[in-house]
Amino acid sequence: MFQPNSRYYTIETAEYVDGDGLTVRYVRRRFIPRAPSVPLAEHRVVAGDRLDRVTARYLADPERFWQVADANRVEHADDVTAEVGTVAIIPMPNLTSP
């Protein structure tokens, strides 16, 4: 259902069947993991920063933006770069699993 680099890849899925027989597949609730204790780097947000570009710079993969979002304990990735001057934690890349 999800690609291996998706933040939802390891989350269990479930199904709901309504009274008309319509089946709806959904992802069970996902909890934001604890931030790593030792970050790879810290990035001070500047005007115009986008999380995919920040992630490409530090982790060499813009699609791993969700790992930075998780490390900064935000649900919405854009919140990491929403405020200029904020220091964003860049986690060590997780190369063995999503």
Can you offer a commentary on this structure?
With 98 residues, the protein is an alpha+beta fold. The protein has one domain (13-90): Roll (Membrane-bound Lytic Murein Transglycosylase D, Chain A), CATH 3.10.350. Helices cover 16% and strands 18% of the residues. The protein contains two helices and four strands. A two-stranded antiparallel ribbon has the order 1-2. The protein has a two-stranded antiparallel sheet with strand order 3-4. It is elongated, with a radius of gyration of 16 Å.
Please specify the SSE layout and strand pairing.
Blueprint (H helix, E strand, L loop, with lengths): L12 E5 L5 E5 L13 E4 L6 H9 L5 H7 L15 E4 L8
Antiparallel strand pairs: 1-2, 3-4
Task: Give me the side-by-side strand order of the main sheet.
Answer: 1-2
Number of helices: 2
Largest sheet: 2 strands, antiparallel
For this structure, the CATH topology is Membrane-bound Lytic Murein Transglycosylase D, Chain A
Alpha-beta classification: alpha+beta
Order of helices and strands: EEEHHE
Shape: elongated
* Total count of strands: 4
How far apart, in Å, are the first and last alpha carbons? 14 Å
Low-confidence stretches: none
Instruction: Estimate what percentage of residues fall within beta strands.
Output: 15-25%
- List the domain count as a whole number: 1
Radius of gyration: 16 Å
Features:
about 100 residues, alpha+beta, two-stranded antiparallel sheet, two-stranded antiparallel ribbon, 4 strands, elongated, Membrane-bound Lytic Murein Transglycosylase D, Chain A, single chain
